[in-house]
Design brief:
This protein has 303 residues and is mainly alpha-helical. 77% of the residues lie in helices and 0% in strands. The chain has one domain.
Length: 303
């Protein structure tokens, strides 16, 4: 029984990052086909909220939120999906789905530095080396076609500031909320607040995106997959994994997302993403750096 309790968090984390790997490709496809970002993000949030509340009310799976905890649930929704999805999708618009996946994979590196200040963990030589390898990997990835333009720089900054920042807010808040609430309850409130936060942006900028092309099966099938699989299923699994493994240990699996995204983009949507040896080296270095940072045991500094 004890072995199973250790197996499931790792298995669920692997499933989540595999599906999330496809999400970057689906979002990239929608954006490259001129689907308005605020339109499909709001539909994704709305569908996720409806599905979660429907299932939760029928199954009786939604717990009552204790007094004082609603602000933390709001913070979850603000960090991820709101801030995170703004950074991710606009980052993809100015770069690519695989580039976004590579940057998202560096989240554990930021956790390492945050843990240094929160929990007084030492920054060992191995952890510093891992961070430098991942940074070098991102540089290699950006060197495609001889350099980085202003548009790509804008996308990278959006990904680092909003997507990574939102994920960190979500990760550390989820760890605390998992001590009181089930993953299903957390995800339900998370996406409810996410939908409410995206509603004004949809009304201001997204309504114009309700074109005939938007309602085609090709577009709607990808939005449904993003809502059902990537939002409802994956975030529920990730909340469970974060509660069981901790933010830093769970995020080691995020290193696999660029591999899934790269493979899906190359084999399922030929021409959507170009690859050369610099990109491949960049992905390998980034993943290697993240893994090194994660596998090195944390040691607390002496008081």
């Amino acid at each position: 029984m004890k072995s199973n309790s250790r197996l499931f968090p790792y298995l669920f984390a692997l499933i989540a990052v595999t599906i999330w790997g496809f999400s970057f490709v689906w979002e990239d496809y929608l954006i490259k086909n001129n689907i308005e970002i605020f339109t499909f993000i709001f539909e994704r949030m709305f569908l996720s909220t409806v599905i979660l509340w429907t299932v939760g009310l029928i199954a009786g799976s939604i717990q009552k939120i204790q007094k004082g905890d609603m602000k933390w649930m709001f913070l979850l929704g603000f960090g991820e999906p709101f801030i995170y999805f703004l950074g991710e999708n606009f980052g993809i618009k100015y770069t690519s789905g695989v580039m976004a996946a590579v940057i998202i994979a560096t989240i554990p590196l930021f956790c390492t530095f945050i843990d240094r200040f929160l929990y007084k963990y030492k920054l060992s030589f191995q952890k510093v080396l891992g961070c430098l390898l991942s940074l070098l990997g991102i540089i290699f990835f950006m060197m495609e076609k001889g350099g980085m333009g202003s548009s790509q720089l804008k996308g990278i900054l959006l990904l680092f500031i909003f997507a990574v920042g939102g994920a960190l807010i979500y990760g550390y808040t989820t760890k605390e909320m998992c001590k009181k609430y089930s993953p299903f309850t957390i995800v339900t409130y998370q996406f409810t607040f996410g939908a409410l936060l995206f509603l004004p942006l949809f009304l201001l900028f997204g309504i114009k995106g309700l074109t005939p092309q938007y309602f085609t099966m090709d577009v709607q099938s990808k939005i449904l997959a993003l809502a059902l699989l990537c939002s409802c299923v994956c975030f529920g699994l990730w909340a469970y994994c974060t509660g069981k493994l901790g933010v830093t240990r769970a995020n080691i699996f995020s290193a696999l997302i660029p591999l899934v995204s790269a493979g899906a983009a190359y084999f399922l949507y030929p021409g959507q993403e170009s690859f050369n040896y610099l990109k491949l080296i960049g992905i390998i270095l980034t993943i290697s750096g993240v893994i090194i940072v994660q596998v090195v045991k944390d040691v607390k500094t002496s008081a």
